[in-house]
Structure formats: structure tokens, C-alpha cells
Amino acid sequence: MVSTESFRIPTRSHHVPTARHYVRKALADWGITDELAERALLSANELVTNAVTHCLVSSARVRVTLVLFGGELVLEVSDPDRDRLPRLRDPGPDEEGGRGLALVEALADAWGHRQGPYTKTVWARFTLTHAQGTGDASRA
Questions:
Q1: Do 27 and 33 touch, CB atoms closer than 8 A?
Q2: What is the spatial distance between Cα 92 and Cα 94, in angstroms, rounded to a whole number?
Q3: According to DSSP H, which parts of 55-115 are helical?
């Protein structure tokens, strides 16, 4: 059975904690509260922060979607700035930013992006262990 949670936030940095709250709640509702939850939550934080920081479309909203299916959890963060694609950077030691995607790459089993007609989506995929995700996954 597929379970999905999705929500939108404005492209303002002060809404990133709201996104973390919703992701944490969805994961807990699905029974994912261990180290995987921390990896997914940190990845969500980085991807949402990137979206709200780099999206140049005025009055845009970022869509966060979590999908639990079979043995996988997929996190997707979409925004309407479809032509500004994410790229890994190699920031210098004194730079404050530029490490978010490298962190997502280290935390997720896979990550990537795709362009839609009006949006781009950056995704991260996590493999669940047998004991994870045994909560109420009947919600869709």
C-alpha cells in the first residue's frame, strides 16, 4: 500500500521549521522514528532550505511530498523555478553554505532531480529496514 503526505509552504526561510514539523509528524505517524527519521528530516531541511533560498519566482510555494511504498521512503521538494537545477558544489573551508546537497547525498540512498512543465523536483530516497514503517500506513 502507498502512503503519501504532502504540504506546501511559502518560499520564506522562516517557514523551514514548519516543513520540518510536518515531515517529523508524517514519519512518526508511519512509525519511522529512528535514525532513518533523522536522516530524512535533515535531508528535508536541506532541500527545503535550498528551495526557499534559491527560488526566484515571486510569491511561490514549495511543495514537500513524502511517499512510503514497499521498502522505500521518498522525499520530494518541488518549486516553480524549473530552470534553476541543483548542483553539487565544492565550497571552500571558509564558505558558510554550499554543502546541503553533499549532505543529502551522504544521508540518502539516492537523490536526484527532474523537471516538469512548470516545476523542478529534487528527491531523496531512503531504504527502510524490516522494522521501520510499520505504523498506520493506510492513510493516503
A1: yes
A2: 5
A3: 100-107
User: Is 134 contained in some domain?
Assistant: no
pTM given for the model? 0.87
Identify whether the C-beta of residue 73 lies closer than 8 Å to the C-beta of residue 107.
Answer: no
**Number of separate domains in the chain:** 1
Pick from 90, 91, 89, 67: which is nearest to 78 by CA? 67
Residue 106 lies in a domain: yes
**Residue that is written with C-alpha cell 527545503 in the block:** 48
Query: Which candidate, 140, 118, 9, places its Cα nearest to that of 63?
Result: 9
Q: Are 89 and 96 in contact (CB under 8 A)?
A: no
pLDDT tens-digit series, residues 12-68: 999 999 999 999 999 999 999 999 999 999 999 999 999 999 888 888 999 999 999
